[in-house]
Amino acid sequence: MNREQNEIGFIDVPKEYESLDEKTKIKLCDNIIRSMLEQMDKATPKYINRITFLNEILESSLITNEEQENFEVCVVLRDIIKRLND
User: Fold this and answer.
1) Residue 10: inside a domain
2) pLDDT the model gives residue 1
3) Most buried among 11, 16, 77, 78, by the most CB within 10 A?
């Protein structure tokens, strides 16, 4: 299924992400989530469920990165999605 997409932004994650300890990964993921939610609060109407919306954005990004074989990015996205849904 192809659909039009708009680019929202970029997230910079250290290349050594996979070698970080679990506590550091959690902290990094939480910071990314917090930052993304803050940006969404500024840019989206209040009636939109920001968690659901962010989850859809992350899932779409995960699919795109899997298709492009950006597996290092996929690892980070999966961890962020997991933290968001915990």
Assistant:
1) no
2) 44
3) 77
